[in-house]
Amino acid sequence: MCPGCRSHFLNSIVPLQETLGQYINLDLVPFGNAILYSNGPRCQHGELECYGNAFQACSLDMDGFDKAFKLIECMFNSNYFGNPKYSSKQCSEQLNLNYQQLDSCATGQKGLELTRKMASKTPRHNYVPWTTVQGRFVDGNVDLVEYICENYLDNNVQACN
């Protein structure tokens, strides 16, 4: 539901994973500008955003990174982007993921536990999207492939040349 996050994911994170995925350990943390209270999160863009974050966290936990990455990419690309209840169902079915299981997770205790886990992994930030590399903030306007190639990978990596 966060337009800036959508743009950053599709225009920076997807190309990064496609280009350098075999050389890096990408960690996705669906939490954003939420605030975690004892009874659950409150998200910047409302309850539907909290549901989408929990659904994505459940997929990361239950389906593994590669399938969850495709799900998140699909949700951001969906015509139903503004309503994660619809985009999650559409994309789960399209990718042959178990929507019922993921939905139960997202709306249940497990989803709340995973949301708490994502909250604990979220660094202090001034805005979203907030990208870090090796714990250091990297401005969203920076080409992540170029940045990682120049600062972390050697010249022998084909994708960096």
TrEMBL record:
The keyword Glycosyltransferase does not apply. Its main location: secreted. GO terms for molecular function: oxidoreductase activity, acting on a sulfur group of donors, disulfide as acceptor. Signal peptide: none annotated. It is found in: Secreted. Keywords: Glycoprotein, Secreted, Signal. GO terms for cellular component: extracellular region. Transmembrane segments: none annotated. InterPro entries: Interferon-induced_GILT. Belongs to the GILT family. This is GILT-like protein. It comes from Euroglyphus maynei.
